[in-house]
Automatic annotation (TrEMBL):
This is NAD(P)H-hydrate epimerase. It comes from the Bacteria. (6S)-NADPHX binds at residues 81-85, 143-149, 170. It is an enzyme of class 5 (isomerase). It comes from Sphingopyxis granuli.
Amino acid sequence: MTKGWGNASKSKSPQAWDRRMTVPADAPILTADAMRAAEAACAAAGVSLSELMERAGAAVADVAWRMAAGAPVLILCGPGNNGGDGYVAARLLKARGAKVRVAALAPPATDLARAARAAWDGPVEAFAPDTAPAPLIVDALFGVGLTRPLSDEWSAMLRRFAGRRVLAVDVPSGIESDGLQDWLPPLPAAVTLALGALKPAHLLLPTAPACGRVLLAPIGIDAERRMRTLPPLPPETPTADAHKFSRGMVLVRAGPMKGAAGLSAAAALRAGAGYVVLEDGGPAPLSAIIAEAPAAFRARLDDPRVGAIVVGPGFPAGDALAAAVGEVLDAGKPLVLDAAAIGAALPRLGKGTAAAILTPHEGEFARAFPDLRGSKIERALAAARRAQAVVIYKGADTVIAAPDGRVVAAWPGSPWLATAGTGDVLAGVCGAMLARGGDAFDAAVAAVGWHIARARSIGRGLVADDLVKTAK
Ligand SMILES: NC(=O)C1=CN([C@@H]2O[C@H](COP(=O)(O)OP(=O)(O)OC[C@H]3O[C@@H](n4cnc5c(N)ncnc54)[C@H](O)[C@@H]3O)[C@@H](O)[C@H]2O)[C@@H](O)CC1
Ligand SMILES: Nc1ncnc2c1ncn2[C@@H]1O[C@H](COP(=O)(O)OP(=O)(O)O)[C@@H](O)[C@H]1O
Ligand SMILES: [K+]
């Protein structure tokens, strides 16, 4: 948190994107309802709501102080508690010697915001079309309480400040925080300070990019741990007594597009599987892959050492896929189902089948679960419950969900992954993680983390093969 926030958007450096849009790792995510419940639990435990607002305002003041670096600050306050946080921050910044102006959209409408407004002893301007800007704008207009899009008039007033350095309190105003609506904020933020927990809209498209760099102010709310951001990658070093089968054996079933299954097999090896068998593979991208003809491959399905089977990459829908999926389901081994294999397996999943990870992209998800509605997090969860499987709902805002309600949101990934074949790689990595044994959700989270970390380390010019070619 040093200099450069405000100028990062102008930087042409290839890594600028990663610096501009980051979120804290392994941080809690709460919907507005869950946030209010957590707030009520705090109150019941003896922490007053005004104390929570004081902590929130102090965190805002702290970040604003560093972003302003001595320059004047304009704090825009709305009528609710988001505005209340703004008044608290104004008081604390002034006490530290900052040059602060406050402009209000409307008088405070909650007891907490009124008290915060009363404790601010400076002037309050009316936020109007001619409000003078400042080098740092603190957006404390609306937070999780926004119930409808901002009016055109207010949107135009905010757009006048585009290009200034903007710190958004909780969310950039205009965003619907649960990720249910695609309202875009008129004034995107360089930095968003999430209060108590991250909100779905910080992590889902189309709103996430408008939040800029997201920081978390914990403020003492005891957020439940079921929904999180992507955790740091677990250590990958094999145990000292490892052997190739203890590290996990993965079978990859190939379809007509052999290259795709080859990428999956290579990815499984690179991600740490000790032994990878590719069916009918054509030329395998790594000679350490064991390529086998269909009959020998089928005999492998009964091998008790098999830790996971991958099917779907390069295998379009049709009778051949249906037969292949039927065979792997009969094998009773943990499965990674990608692309059209998801739809083919769906009617049988959850009926006594082994653990499975499904890896649909947007189009495959819509085909497999056409009736699901809600935010991407809600849809991923509903799909996981229906399939009784872990779902990796891919995209720039990848969401991983388990039938028991656990969710990891992986924004921001690496946009270098937006290239053909990277999904085949992810399916193979899932196979490697699943073949280690253990929980399928943890395996899926580790796979997504591996995929993103590898893509970031390669960066510019990445093609899917690069993800699996070398160890580093
Ligand atoms: N929940 C918590 O634990 C905490 C919440 N805090 C702050 O409180 C915020 C939530 O406060 P509120 O629930 O008061 O909600 P907001 O301050 O987000 O906004 C609600 C107000 O805006 C009005 N409003 C909503 N949409 C509008 C629109 N499109 N046009 C005009 N007016 C509109 C509502 O009538 C209401 O007066 C959080 O985002 C956060 O900043 C913090 O003070 C600390 C703790
Ligand atoms: N803009 C992006 N930012 C981050 N990750 C992305 C982006 N676009 C795609 N991805 C990731 O790249 C992979 C693409 O998978 P998929 O669409 O199945 O590709 P393919 O079928 O060509 O292998 C997924 O893991 C997805 O999450
Ligand atoms: K705000």
